[in-house]
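User: Predict the structure for this protein chain, please.
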Amino acid sequence: MSSDTLTKAAAAAPQEAAPLRIVPQRRLGLWTTAVAVLALLGLALNSLAHNDAFQWDVVGDYFTSASVLRGLWLTLWLTAVVMALGFTLGTLLAAFRLSANPVLRAVSWGYVWLFRSMPILVQLLFWFNIGALYPQILGVKTVNLLGPVTVAVLGLTLHEAAYAAEVVRGGILSVDRGQIEAAQALGLSRWRRWRRIVLPQAMRSIVPPAGNMLIGTLKGTSIVSVIAVQDLLYSVQLVYHRTYQVMPLLMVATLWYVVVTSVLSVGQYYVEKHYARGSERTR
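Assistant: Here is the predicted structure, written as structure tokens:
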């Protein structure tokens, strides 16, 4: 074959297409929104820093004062006790709800329905004035038996237990029934099935709402100030009723709530990461 023939054949052959150049998508709206949000955030921070009404020097003076730290300690103690007692009672109620006994199921359902229907403030005021209904319990005057702190623990615990029962019940129901049947087939005892199979998997669903409940309880304890429990909020109220420096003292309480909530959020993240091992959520 001659060179002219080869040249004509090469010219007639289809030419390979040039590679396409990838052009990144323009996200004008995304960057415009980001700039606008950052601008608004900057204006807010500037207002906080330069607004003399906040009286940051007063905030600094009272932030670590003895009365505020005592109130903070009571808030943390109250949160820990209420969460421990609330989840203990809530776990028992969840077991009742999942029981084959219709009486236990009805009692658990009725408890959850009642205490989720009543506002927490109404519950606290009810227990605080229980002496109007029962002046004495077992021969002891109610006013001596139920002080403000006891009323706060009782009211908050009964309230949290109703929500904890649903959280625990939902976590247990999230475990695939086949897992339990497989453990039964292997001859594992009931306790080992719950400890080694059901509970680790249920915790993946229990921890996130439980963490939210913990943070909600921390902030919700501020409501006990209405019955004169000297928590963090009530402690700063005592100060600003005397000094009339309302805004800086409220900022003291707010900053402490932010600090503690941030610490709890970090702890929740690592607990969730621990129980999410081996699942897609670890990514």
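The two ends are 63 Å apart (CA to CA).
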